Amino acid sequence: MFPKPKRKKGRGCRVSDRCDDLKAIRGYTDPKSFVRRDGSESLAGKDWTRRKEELGERAGGRCEFVCGGIRCEQPGDDPDHVICRSVKRDDCLYNLRLLCREHHILIDPRVPRWGKRKRGEQVKRVGIRFGGG
């Protein structure tokens, strides 16, 4: 008889790949948040909200897009993953950058669909605002 494959919990992360000790050490409390044994993180709820606040503090509330050695002056709206979430979701601060809406669309023109809409209907991108206004 063949052994059963290890059970997966959540979105494709085996329970055996998760490290509850690292989650506790890093102070994450949301039941959907987890830290993998390799140190990568998947955050949810209040943990993700706290991470976005840390990102805003690091960026000073400004877009982190740099072109020709000059940093964008616009306020940051959207947290963006340097390595796409679809490849391997990692919500560590080093894998995130804060972008203004224009640069986020420039880098990643895809528009997320949070809910139902009619075919051809325009989608308004919703982000977050840090700092000034």
Q: Which characteristics define this entry?
A:
133 residues; alpha+beta; two-stranded antiparallel sheet
Can you tell me about this structure?
The structure is a single chain. The chain has one domain. The protein has helices at residues 20-25, 45-59, 101-107, and strands spanning 8-9, 13-14, 34-35, 41-42, 66-67, 70-71, 78-81, 96-99. The protein is elongated. A hairpin with a 2-residue loop joins strand 5 (66-67) and strand 6 (70-71). The model has no long low-confidence stretch (mean pLDDT 80). It is built from three helices and eight strands; from the N terminus they run ββαββαββββα. A two-stranded antiparallel sheet has the order 1-2. The protein has 133 residues and is α+β, with helices and mostly antiparallel strands.
Helix-and-strand structural type? alpha+beta
What is the total number of structural domains? 1
Assign an overall shape. elongated
Helix percent band: 10-25%
What would the average pLDDT be, to the nearest integer?
80
Number of helices: 3
Helix-strand string: EEHEEHEEEEH
Q: Largest sheet, order of strands side by side?
A: 1-2
Work out the number of β strands: 8
Round the Cα radius of gyration to an integer and report it: 18 Å
How many angstroms does the end-to-end distance come to? 63 Å
Stretches with pLDDT under 50, minimum 5 residues: none
Strand content: 15-25%
Taking the sheet with the most strands, its summary is:
2 strands, antiparallel
